[in-house]
Design brief:
With 237 residues, the chain is of the alpha+beta class. The chain has two domains: 66 residues; 149 residues, no CATH class. Helices cover 54% and strands 8% of the residues. It contains eleven helices and four strands. The longest helix has 19 residues.
Length: 237
């Protein structure tokens, strides 16, 4: 089975998301120049096109719509792996229990898949990393874990710039950080969409996400606030 080309797959999601919020002429204008890019294209070309495309998108449809478009381009947490949490939330309506179930699953991933030492697992959980996040009032604050294949290097690296390059899951952001180049910060709503997908699956309601910090914007980590929708009880808030 062939592995999908990340760049082509992402551009397909971007094109479809723009179509949902704008007309064909706008979509063509934003996507112009990206037709030939693949995951094998020079990273500088991908970064330059991405930066221009996001700038055009904000200019044509506004930042709020650009954020919505980009959240729809996110990689998704497997829906099948969230169904037990969704059912539990539907039964009990307990946000804290849903967070605990996500955290338990994440801990199993750290231990069974990444094979982290117990001390490292304790650190990662204490830092609040991972998809579960930490609830603060009516929001959940999620801190992204560094990309798995670079996690060990990230934890050992002392140079802040190199750590930021190791951190992001997105190849075009890693390339931009490594090259010292810029992509508009609104692009990080693609990463925020990962958490939007998790909580919309669990709650079966739309949620709003907010990028609080990202390595693309010069931060040391990427943090996202997931705002709970009206009607979802947060008894300990």
């Amino acid at each position: 089975m062939s592995i999908p080309d990340f760049e082509r797959s992402w551009q397909g999601k971007l094109s479809k998301a723009i179509d949902a919020l704008a007309d064909e002429a706008v979509r063509r204008r934003i996507m112009e120049g990206g037709e030939s890019l693949t995951s094998h294209s020079p990273s500088g070309d991908v970064v330059a096109w991405s930066s221009a495309a996001v700038e055009k998108m904000v200019g044509r449809i506004g930042e709020a719509n650009a954020r919505e478009v980009l959240t729809r381009c996110a990689c998704r947490y497997p829906d099948a792996d969230l169904q037990d949490i969704r059912r539990e939330f539907a039964l009990r309506g307990d946000i804290d229990r849903a967070i605990r179930m996500l955290r338990d699953r994440f801990e199993s991933f750290l231990r069974g898949t990444l094979l982290l030492e117990e001390a490292r697992i304790a650190d990662v959980l204490a830092w609040g990393w991972g998809p579960a996040g930490v609830r603060q009032g009516d929001a959940i604050i999620a801190t992204k874990i560094p990309k798995s294949e670079f996690l060990a290097a990230f934890l050992e690296e002392k140079d802040p710039g190199k750590r930021r390059a190791y951190y992001c899951h997105c190849p075009r952001v890693r390339a931009a950080v490594e090259r010292g180049e810029k992509i508009p910060g609104v692009y990080c709503y693609c990463g925020a969409g990962f958490y939007k997908g998790i909580w919309e699956t669990i709650l079966q309601k739309p949620v709003q996400v907010e990028v609080l910090e990202s390595v693309l914007q010069g931060g040391d980590l990427c943090r996202v606030a997931i705002h709970m929708p009206t009607g979802v009880e947060t008894p300990n808030a």
